[in-house]
């Protein structure tokens, strides 16, 4: 298709200029929380979204090197390779990028296949082609969720960990057999995950109230509410900054100090969150 368009432009004496983009680690970077939000916004029924969740989740991988095999590790992101369904899901995952280009109404042709994008401008003036492609590139980059540009590096890193649940909380540390982590549960008997801390854990009820107040009318009552929050470019920065202030992730404490943020002390087992707030 691209080659034919180039030859057609040449036949009219025009200059054809092509810009090609490749998304690094494309299939491995698909996060289900964002994919489900995209599908929900596009009107897909919940039974399809639940089917896709069962298709993506619950996968594991092993490494085989020098005749030695590692233990199975759960995959928290990505879509299975080699399946036609995975290709379709990835195209839906990056659909917002192409929608931004279409809305711009630029005089060019866009052809995408999997993680490769071809942008072709045809015009008698090569300089005009370059101007069109430069504007298209800015639109393409601008379609990346804006909250990443409003976050400091350690906040963006923490956000990725929260979204994939590969995070330094008890449930994940216990699963990875980290020494000293004997149970995956918090002091209230439920698995300590980012979702549990944000929505359910009574220890952080007071702090959760402050987060809820900053979110306005948005409610945090279910996993769907939590996943929707993680995909909202306006509210995500408020959430991840609040989450880091809880002090649960000690590995980010130095980064927060250097960036001017205050690190809250984690609630001891003998105290409540309200005691700490006082």
TrEMBL record:
<dbReference type="InterPro" id="IPR000477">
    <property type="entry name" value="RT_dom"/>
</dbReference>
<feature type="domain" description="Reverse transcriptase">
    <location>
        <begin position="1"/>
        <end position="171"/>
    </location>
</feature>
<protein>
    <submittedName>
        <fullName>Uu.00g087740.m01.CDS01</fullName>
    </submittedName>
</protein>
<dbReference type="Pfam" id="PF00078">
    <property type="entry name" value="RVT_1"/>
</dbReference>
């Amino acid at each position: 298709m691209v080659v034919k368009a180039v030859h057609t432009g040449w036949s009219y004496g025009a200059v054809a200029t092509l810009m090609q983009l490749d998304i690094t680690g494309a299939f491995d970077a698909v996060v289900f929380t964002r994919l489900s939000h995209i599908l929900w916004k596009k009107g897909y029924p919940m039974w399809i979204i639940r089917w896709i969740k069962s298709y993506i989740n619950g996968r594991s991988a092993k490494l085989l090197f020098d005749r030695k095999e590692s233990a199975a590790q759960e995959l928290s992101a990505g879509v299975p390779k080699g399946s036609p369904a995975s290709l379709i899901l990835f195209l839906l995952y990056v659909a917002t990028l192409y929608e931004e280009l279409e809305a711009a109404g630029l005089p060019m042709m866009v052809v995408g296949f999997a993680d490769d994008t071809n942008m072709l401008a045809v015009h008698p003036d090569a300089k005009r082609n370059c101007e069109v492609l430069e504007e298209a590139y800015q639109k393409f980059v601008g379609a990346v969720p804006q909250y990443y540009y409003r976050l400091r590096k350690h906040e963006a890193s923490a956000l990725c960990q929260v979204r994939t649940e590969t995070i330094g909380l008890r449930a994940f540390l216990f699963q990875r057999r980290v020494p000293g982590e004997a149970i995956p549960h918090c002091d209230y008997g439920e698995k300590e995950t980012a979702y549990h801390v944000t929505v359910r854990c009574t220890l952080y009820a007071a702090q959760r109230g402050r987060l809820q107040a900053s979110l306005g009318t948005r409610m945090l009552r279910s996993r769907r509410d939590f996943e929707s929050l993680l995909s909202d470019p306006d509210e995500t920065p408020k959430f991840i900054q609040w989450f880091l202030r809880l002090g649960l992730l000690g590995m980010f404490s130095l980064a927060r100090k250097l960036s001017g943020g205050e690190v809250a002390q984690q609630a001891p087992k003998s105290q409540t969150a309200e005691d700490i707030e006082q």
